[in-house]
Structure formats: C-alpha cells, structure tokens
Amino acid sequence: SFLQGLPQYEVVHPYRVDAKGHFLSNFVSHRVSRVQRRETQGEPGNPTRVFYQLQHGGHNLHFNLTLNPHLLAPGFLTERRYGGLEGAKIRSHGPSLCHFIGDVWDRATMKGRAAISTCDGLTGLFKLSQEDFFIRPLERSSDESTAPQVHIIYKRHTSPTQSQLVQPISGDHTTNGTCGVKDPAAALERVERQRERWERRQPRKRRIRQRSISREKWVETLVVADSKMVEYHGTKGVESYVLAVMNIVSGLFRDASIGNPINIVVVRLILLEKEEVREPQL
User: With CB atoms counted within 10 Å of each terminal CB, which end of the chain scores lower, N or C?
Assistant: First the structure.
C-alpha cells in the first residue's frame, strides 16, 4: 500500500479555526464560489481566507491561507479526449474554487510557506525549517460526520520512488496502474532547480533592478494528463490531483527568493482518457 512504501509519516487530524485560533469545525474541505469571492473581498469572515491547526512533530501548527485567485484563468477549460480530437468533450470550470496559498507557523520559532488545496480535505505542500512536507487525506470528507478527517504528513525528500502525492480514495481506478508522473517530489525538485538556474543566469544588476521595481510576472500554462494518470487517479479524481500539483508549483514560484512574484496560470487541462491514435504518415 501507499503507507507501506513511506519510510516515515505521521497521522494528523487537522481542524478549522477562526483568525484568532478558536475551534470552528473538524470539517476541513472548503470551496469558494466566484460570487462569494467578488462580494466579500476585504470583509470580516471573508471566505477567501481560511485557517487551520494541527499537531505535527510535537508542534501546534497554524495555517493562514488565502485563495490563489490566479491559478485558473477566467476562461479555464477542461478537455477530455477519447483517442483523438473527434468526440472530445470540453467544459468550463465549475463555480467554486478551492486552491490556497499562505503561511504556516508554530508560535515558538518556525514559520514557512504553504500551498494547500481544500477541495476534499487538505492536499498540498508546506515548508518549515528548510524542510518540505506533503499533506494529504487518507479518507474522503463527509458532511454528515463530525469526526476529524484523517490525514498523513510525510517529508518530501523521503517519498518512495513510485509514490503519489494523492492516491485515489475511491472511484474508477486500477490498483496496479502507474501514473505519468511517478514521483511528484522529484518533479517539484526539478521545477525548483529550473527556477534557480533561471535566476543564476540573470545579470546581478538586472535582478536587483527587478526586485526594486517588484513587477509581477505571469506564465500561462496548458497541462496534459496522459491516459495512465487518468487511469490511476480515476476519471473523477484526476482533475483535482493535477490542479493540486499545479497549486504547489504556483506556490514555489511565489517564493521570496525569486524576487518578483511569478503567477502560474492554468488556461486549459487536457485529460487523455484513451491514448491518442496517430495517423500513419504517407
């Protein structure tokens, strides 16, 4: 199983709190409608901000998260292909958003960054004391249950070679399937190395000038999930998985070490339900 492949992990039970740390609920899934986002911006109790607490490693961790408003482009589309362009199904994104970025801290000394998706429990990455940790649910959330939802936390650099950030909890999938991205931890490390190489290539004077101006940059992205990934995570779960990973990537590119924030914007997600059929060349 997934847990057997992890060298070390900790079972945690996050819960939702208010801005002052007062307990609100064990139900941690949180979605924001586009209407709520427009109408309540800046108001007390703004749903685009959400707070959580959990016990991890002997510390009481606090999460202060804000909706990542730029992750999905206004015209974001999901396209499902069944072996080719013919018969492809295209739909716009639903009315709710559930991808957040923000801070995590312990009241004693530690403070770090977090990129968490709250679509069904808490799924994402946070950084503390120069170490990166994945968090993911072990069970689906339930509106009817008042019990805390079980999650696990494990270090990014100790994830097994073929582990997944998010494995299917239920749905149509095969237990022996493999994913197009076999090791999300390694993939994220490559993203960070690419970012660091890019920064090193920039002339020092240019980097200083850009930081002083502090101009935002925007990178529009099209993401493709191959048929193996769709099979592994299930038709219903693969979209949440891919967008949770892209939210983590977005959080990495907003790191202060870059200087100017870089916004990752997903404009389209293509899901290959079946392998593309290539026409023979004459």
Answer: C
